[in-house]
Amino acid sequence: MTAILKAIRPLGFHWQTQDPFLFCAHHLDVFPEGKPDMSPLTGLNGRQIGQDFSGQDGWSMYHGSKVPGFPAHPHKGFETVTIVEEGLVDHSDSLGAAGRFGNGDTQWMTAGKGVMHSEMFPLLNEQNKNPLHLFQIWLNLPQAKKNVPAHFKMMWKEDIPVKIVKDEQGKTSHFKLIAGQFGALKALAPAPDSYAADPANEVAIWLISAEAGARFTLPEVGEGTNRSLFFYAGDHIETAGESISEEHSIDLAGGKALEIHNGNKTGYFLYLQGKPLGEKVVQHGPFVMNSNQEIQEAVYEFQRTQFGGWPWESHEHTHPKERGRFAIHADGREETK
């Protein structure tokens, strides 16, 4: 293995990342047709309700008891970047913010000093299956930003820039820029207190697709900047003298550009890049701080305040079935798509 390739590992349910990222969860479910209440038409027999990660029949209920998803739970000290390529997510939080997003949208949420939110997957289609494909990336916050105000930002698919690159053979690769810059093309601004808000930190989050046989190049970055390429679907790739099959991740050293030669099928990748924080990480479930004492304080604060309380009638709150994509922010500002 060459110096630029630091590690190659098979992908699991939670993808191992490098500082400043904490991890990435990849959900790919083919949910059945929905009932009028947006629950699975096939019912829930044989599932451990509230704790179903079985993948039975190609899907899981996760922590949902009626509609699949993740009922109200807290976060503190980091950010979540939720990229939904297919399907929809109903968001509700303790700040009073809410939204329905998906089918190409991304939600960027800075937990900062604390927020509680739910993420449910409404099954709106009663005639056909309801596939869901999403990535949730946890991006750490530096110690100085652990207690910034929580913030909820939407990046609608219509606004997210995509860079199209052709190689010398005319084969095409697409780079969907959630964060960072590719050549002259810049992603939308991240949340204001994000580690990604400072270009000097070289944070990039890209979804890449490459047609069969295409060659594409990951650009040069600063020495010491961490890079990871998650090859989640395709055939194989060749890079730096190695042949790597699908469902593997590659940790890359900073510095030089790296060419990737895609194999015999369309290849799909998630790319994460950033200068490491280099700070101690102490994690207790959804709380990420810098010391055990800070974790104890975070847990106590949540027990005392519930990070603002829960303003919705259910911890598994879903929005009316007829609603389209929308976001309501804590200040009352509303967006619709």
Automatic annotation (TrEMBL):
Domain Pirin N-terminal: 62-139
Domain Pirin C-terminal stretches: 208-308
SUPFAM superfamilies membership: RmlC-like cupins
Pfam families, per the entry: Pirin, Pirin_C
Similarity annotation: Belongs to the pirin family.
Protein name: Pirin family protein
Species: Cyclobacterium jeungdonense
